[in-house]
Amino acid sequence: MRRCDLIVLGAGPAGAEAALAASGAGLDVVLVEEAAAAGGQVWRAPAAASPPGLDPFPAEAEARAGAALRARLAASPVESWFGARAWSVIRPAEGGFRLDAAGPEGPLACAAPRLVAATGAVERVIPFPGWTLPGVIGLAAATVLLKAQGVLPGQRVVVAGCGPLLAAVAAKILAAGGEVVAVVDRAAPAEWLAASRALASRPRLLARGLGWALRIAGRRVPVHFAHAVRAAEGDEALRRLRIAPLDASGGFAPGGAERVLEADALCIGDGLVPGAEIPRLLRARLRFDRALGGWVPELDAEGRTSLPGLFAVGDGAGLRGQAPAVHAGRIAGLAAAQEAGRLDAAAFAAATAPERAALAGLAPFAAAMAGLMALRPGAVRDIAPETVICRCEDVTRGMLDAAFDEGAREVNQVKHFTRCGMGPCQGRSCGDVAAEIIAARLGGAREAAGFWTGRPPLRPVPLADLLGEFDYADIPIPAPAPL
Amino acid sequence: MGSAVMQEYDLGVIGGGVHGCTAALFAARGGLRVALLERGPLCREASGVNAGTLTLQMTRLALIPYALRAHAMWASAPQWLGHDVGVVVCDGLSLAFTEAEAELLAFRATKRREAGAPIDLISGRAAMAVEPGLTDRALLAGHCRVDGFANAYLTGLAFRRALLGAGVAVMENRPVTSLAREERGFTALTPTGPVRFRRVLLAGGVWIEPMLRWLGVELPIKVLVNQLVVTERVRPVMRCVVGIANGLLSLKQYPHGTVVVGGGWQGEGDRERGGVALLPERVVGNLRLACHAIPALRGARMARAWAGLEAETADALPAAGPIPGIPDAYVCGSVHSGYTSGPYIARLVAEHILGREPALPLFPIDRLLPPRGTQSPEAA
Ligand SMILES: Cc1cc2nc3c(=O)[nH]c(=O)nc-3n(C[C@H](O)[C@H](O)[C@H](O)COP(=O)(O)OP(=O)(O)OC[C@H]3O[C@@H](n4cnc5c(N)ncnc54)[C@H](O)[C@@H]3O)c2cc1C
Fold first, then answer.
1. B52 within domain boundaries
2. Residue B341 CA to ligand 1 centre (angstroms)
3. Looking at the DSSP assignment, which residues form a beta bridge with residue B243?
């Protein structure tokens, strides 16, 4: 068991900055990350062995920022456990936290009085017939393919969903020499216009966004605003898509004209949902906040959850994006150091002042971006009864409605009745949509539908990776029950 | 409520686990007007989160005759319950890997056999013929042809349908906060109004202890926090229920492919908070044991793990029968391997309440209470 002052789970911008700030203030920090390098989703490192034959994409600001972060981490005393899939986090009776992971060379465990959870967000897809066909992938998965592997998602690609990732993915595909058939955006131009006022507060990002938009426009890629994918078709793989216009609620406009797009790949993401896995697992207090992406932990200004010693930062604690994550991460790392007695109040105030100011400056922008990605009230209305919601367990919308009709009134009961969310992803991909469907039946309030109780493992680890070397005699078998 | 007269039920059952639900069902079928009050949804505590093993090889000796009859009830659930809980009847093996375990197994299997469980002792090699997924390292096995499992998470749905069909007033999300004795009957207070009944059955699982306190009865109930792990769906790796001699493993694969690993390794939790955490060393210990028995399991991924609460009396035998000194009040619970035996024991209690002679004796709690008169009426 490795004992340290602080465990940080997740080495994206939020977690890595928390680890660096805490370590800079003198804490002994273990940083746990399942990927092979730090950077998270936004600053994902290129894979060590990228497949040959594709030109590496031009280094962008993101790639440079990621490389800089990795260099700072490597030069710091932070002990990074890469390739470590955390499966259990508990609060042991003796206090603090204990984390268990399946590492590249076997089981790993560490314990500390404090833990920063920085596990990021998961992508939401609002299901439609054919969304499980080969050729349909998430925007996040497309980003991994493009950034880490240097691979195009297909020959003729449609990019669909909502939020800033749409333009980013489309522009990257174009830059890599791919064809983008169309961009299908749930937002109407007026919504972008409203958001761009907040964007104006970040001229560099605005420029990058405009750059993407111009690249898309320069190639004459059609952009279908206020549209969404209605169906994906094909026998063994994607052949064509049907898209249709949306109404103001985010559902399909009655009688709206369908269009057909021929494509062999669809990159789709209907926004992000905060993972919040650790606060959920440890039963910290959560609240539902549609604008922040869903259920998020209750936090103070330094990222403290309702549980002593547990901090949550980054998109996993509420969608704000990369730039705020950096500052929130640093504040939490410094707060952990202060709690541990390594910083006095004055030093803490001085060190966090610039971070707080930066965070405040970014707030309007962060809120605008999260707003574009938030789930719209009508978005699940038109999902057909036979459409699969939970792809691990093949549970359809009709089965969820039937469970409701049989008396299930919150999502944990729905899970018992249908197996929805019981598969290896533990509902990470379907949970938000399933809860929205049940909430709609209850009259709309997501609080009433609840959320799935957090359960280990945090990742579906093969049993072999947990067992370690053992002899039968080493198994601590408890005394037998009475006969 | 206005001027309407509050409806009085013949029987109020408090707690909607397998005991409360079964008793309510048979009491209603016996002609009583029954209300079932459950603080959450039906069967979401022990009765919905247990391992679903219907085994005689982990059942306490004194309960074997009950468990045999209960097993037959589960096997014929479509007839009396009317709905499917995914019951699979199959062979069961209890394994011994060391000489000491072989001795324990031989002793316990013989005792259980004398009590009526059809268990044969077979060699490790013979056990491999019964269970092709088995390791070659077992020395001895208890082989029982009456074994099997159910899908515990379907229990609530099945009972809900059956209870509504039998005319039981199913009151879910209705926590009882106290119970008042009246001249003729009882009134249960709940946040959404009182409910009156002539007789009351307390079937609150680990919460029987605070429930009995409403009536001034102090019966200590120990809370066990059992850990369980389920894998993702995998190709068939086993076909029997597999356990070990001392009872700390229960393992089987469901028809849809998941494998549930249990055995009563203890996690963290209590009556107030539920099963809050699984201790990682004990998860790993339980999984090592499972993979030792069925080596092909090593390749499966863990999908989910949880901990649930099981009740135990001081002598680890059930609390099932009338509550001494309080006419028309009954208790039913704390049955070891209670998912297996629960339906039969709760049915016996329902028969007793209906004024019939139960086919097998109940387990009255007088044996667990201090001699009458020494208990203070202020205990509540
Ligand atoms: C993890 C685990 C694995 C197990 N595995 C097996 C197995 O494989 N085989 C087997 O035979 N047995 C197994 N058992 C044991 C078995 O599950 C239990 O013995 C049985 O389910 C107990 O049923 P019950 O009705 O007494 O209790 P419960 O199912 O706990 O029901 C009690 C009910 O009372 C309700 N309640 C409590 N307080 C109030 C109140 N104030 N007002 C209203 N309602 C209230 C609760 O919400 C609960 O639903 C296992 C137990 C656990 C925990």
1. no
2. 12
3. B94, B250
Mean pLDDT of A98-123: 97
**CB-ligand 1 contact for B230 (6 Å cutoff):** no
- Among A467, A469, A470, pick the best mutation site for testing chain B contact (most B Cβ within 10 A): A467
pLDDT digits (tens, 9 = 90+) for B103-126: 999 999 999 999 999 999 999 999
Cα B245 from Cα A295, distance rounded (Å): 45
Partners of B156 on chain A (C-beta within 8 Å) are 413, 416-417
Instruction: State if residue B59 touches ligand 1 by the CB under 6 angstroms criterion.
Output: no
Mutate to test the interface with B, among A416, A452, A469 (most CBs of B within 10 A): A416
Alpha carbon of B332: minimum distance to chain A alpha carbons (Å): 21
Phi/psi at B367 (5° precision): -60, -20
**A137 and A257 part of one domain:** yes
> Does any ligand 1 atom lie closer than 6 A to the CB of residue B40?
yes
ipTM: 0.93
- Ligand 1 centroid distance, CA of A410 (Å): 20
d(CA B219, CA B209): 6
Q: How far apart are CA B54 and CA B149, in angstroms?
A: 5
Closest to B236 measured CA to CA, from B211, B259, B263, B220: B259
Query: Residue B63 falls within a domain, yes or no?
Result: no
The DSSP H or E segment spanning B92 is strand B88-96
Q: B353 and B290, same structural domain? A: no
| pLDDT for res A195 | 79
Q: What's the total number of domains in chain B? A: 2
The number of folded domains in chain A is 3
C-alpha B331/C-alpha B315 separation (Å) is: 16
In whole angstroms, give the CA distance from residue A373 to residue A375. Answer: 7
Give, to the nearest 10 degrees, the angle between helix A411-418 and helix B155-165: 90
Task: Determine which residue's CA is closest to atom 27 belonging to ligand 1.
Answer: B205
Residue type, A46: P
Instruction: Identify whether residues B194 and B342 lie together within a single domain.
Output: yes
**pLDDT at residue B142 above 70?**
yes
Q: With a 6 A CB cut-off, is B201 part of the ligand 1 pocket?
A: no
Map residue B52 onto helix, strand or coil: coil
| pLDDT tens digits along A14-48 | 999 999 999 999 999 999 999 999 988 888 777 65
Other CB atoms within a 10 A radius of the CB of residue A330 amount to 27
Query: How close is the Cα of B334 to the center of ligand 1, in Å?
Result: 9
Residues B262 and B358 in one domain: no
Contacts of residue B130, Cβ cutoff 8 Å, sequence gap at least 6: B91, B93, B122, B141, B143, B240
- Asked if residue A214 and residue A139 are part of one domain, the reply reads yes
Q: Which residue among B310, B312, B335, B344 is best mutated to probe the pocket of ligand 1, counting the most ligand atoms within 8 A of its Cβ?
A: B310
- Residue A104 makes CB contacts below 8 A (sequence gap 6+) with A82, A83, A84
Q: How does residue A207 score in pLDDT terms, banded at 50, 70 and 90?
A: low
Q: Which two tokens stand for residue B274?
A: 């539920």
Higher per-residue pLDDT: A322 or A266: A266
Residue in chain A nearest B48 by alpha carbon: A416
Residue A299's region, left for phi above 0, alpha for psi from -120 to 50, else beta, is: beta
For residue A286, list its beta bridge partners. Answer: A297
Cα–Cα dist A159/A162, whole Å:
10
Confidence of residue A208 (pLDDT cuts 50, 70, 90): low
Q: What's the rounded Cα separation, in Å, for the pair A253 and B69?
A: 59
Q: Which domain holds residue B275?
A: 90-146+222-312
Specify the range with the lowest mean pLDDT, choosing from A8-22, A144-158, A336-350, B42-56: A144-158
Beta strands in B124-263 (DSSP E): 140-149, 169-171, 178-182, 185-189, 195-202, 222-231, 241-244, 250-253, 259-262
Q: Nearest residue on chain B to A462, judged by CA atoms?
A: B301
